[in-house]
Give the backbone structure.
Amino acid sequence: MSRVTSAFVAALITLVLGGFLLGMSLTSEGINLVVEASSTGKITFLFVGVVLVFLLQLFREQVGRFTTKMRSDERMELPGFLRTPQQQRVWTMFVIIGLLIFPFLSSRGAVDIATLTLIYVMLGLGLNVVVGLAGLLDLGYVGFYAVGAYTYALLNMYFGVSFWVALPIAGGLAALFGFLLGFPVLRLRGDYLAIVTLGFGEIIRILLNNWTELTGGPNGIARIPKPTLFGLEFSRRPSEEGATTFHEFFGIGYSSEYKVMFLYLMALVLVLITVYVIRRLIRMPIGRAWEALREDDIACRSLGLNPTSIKLGAFTIGASFAGFAGSFFAARQGFISPESFTFIESAIILAIVVLGGMGSQLGVILAAIAMTVLPELAREFDEYRMLLFGLMMVLMMIWRPQGLLPMKRPHLELKRD
Amino acid sequence: MTNNLLTVKDLTMRFGGLLAVNGVDLEVKEKQIVSVIGPNGAGKTTVFNCVSGFYIPTAGSVIFQGKELRGKPGHLIAREGMVRTFQNVRLFKEMTVIENLLVAQHMHAEHSLLKGFFMTPGFKKSEQELMDRAAHWLERVGLLEFANREAGNLAYGQQRRLEIARCMVTEPKLLMLDEPAAGLNPNETKALDELIVQLRDEQGISILLIEHDMGLVMGISDQIYVVNQGEPLAAGTPAEIQGNPEVIKAYLGEE
């Protein structure tokens, strides 16, 4: 079959299939349903699609060559000014300083989105430990996030525990959940593990939704206090007798922007700590063991490494980051409900890890920024956002299946004098 | 007997209806090279997998340094000081040569997360010790110049030697080698031969060997066990085995 005929056939199939979906519409006339031709707009869409398919099939080889070329450059090299560790350190300092002064220079809305992005960066980095480094597909990561958020919200509601006390408890509790879940399920591999973790995420959400006496069920928990700066509140008036607010203490006028900035800076500090901790983990015996286990667990066992406890370590550590992120999320929002912890959240976090390149910290950070900022910018596309999201995923899988910045693991080197 | 390092008694392994190993006995003394030979499919590797904890034997006992190890998981057996290589090389191919040896020393490494986060002197010292031991063994097997290469890029013979080095950094008492000479050329086999004897004489460890290369087996073994179709056929010194009509029959068939 020549190329023209095969392109023609493909276009025809598109026309037939699309014709039913786009070209016709059902309208009700009285009690009957009547099939009518659609509006001209939809018909135009249909024909544009048909022409597109025809052209794509006609020039398939050229397109194929183009895509393979994009795929062939396996690893994006870092630009020249980032090669040596000293240069990297200097640039990291610049970026951190830039991030620190960012809130003072930009609008309140931008800072707010940046804070949300930082939460996702933290979640992405945490899941990256589980999926990217240890190679365990976890589809219920949002469950640990929910545990962290509800830990702070509930402790505060029932016992009046402040954010700073609740933060480590939330991390610890999420880690405990990770440990308890991991214990029985880490014998499973690949798909089976994914299904069990998916179930776990849903169980947590449904539990929160139905345990109305404790969690308020679908109504959620409202009026969760914001974090304080060494006891200084960021509200206009102190919440209780004798407490001081931030602006009173420093003798400046009240502005709601201080609170937003403070939350941003706090999120930034949490993210920086996360980055540092994971950076160290990769270079520690446990990080090496994760890598080895991902490659060959039989060889690991033959050398005395206990696969279950090493996987459990990854699972627990990953979960604790979700716990920290969760309690911060609760404090920032001031209101949480099971709605915030649906499966789609897990999917987004996993998408961040895959998009960024499994195991790569810088890649995950960039992907988290892309995944939160782009939807904000694309607000006017409204319901097409999910469509764009899907399209982006498909294109990524075709062109860069290894992610934006695939991991170049730091190799330990033997230095000889 | 008290000076036995490893005593395997009446080892039996049944996969469903298939009796893969039936009543095999093995004894390995300190500083001995013991070989297990037999035709293809005789159940040699199954014996290895049972002893090293990758299979749970149906019956029998595995006593190592006076401890019953039957049914214990593989990683605990490895920690007791009995490590093995594999018939098909199992390296961590995307890690560098030196990292392969660092991972292998996991049980000797400093595990405290806090010490690692803050890079305490104790942590650095522990890491340096691992590095030194790895470098030492790389030198012993002649791979020091490849330390920072990816293990998957090494030549086959080098990968075999790296696998032995990776076992040795765990400081075992018994090294189990599953067909270490498979796929090696005569020169490499000769080097391996020397290495194994050195390990016994200088490190004082025992070696349990599965091998098809009869030159290698007869040259270095202190004791040989012959297995045929899962059943023990003969045991003795190389000279006894070479003269044993049963063994000749199993290998060459009847006249």
Observations:
- Chain B has two domains: 1-81+173-180+204-254, 88-171.
- Chain B has a mean pLDDT of 89.
- The beta strands of chain B are 4-15, 18-29, 33-37, 59-64, 67-68, 82-84, 174-178, 206-210, 223-228, 231-236.
- Residues 88-171 of chain B form a domain with the Rossmann fold fold (CATH 3.40.50.300).
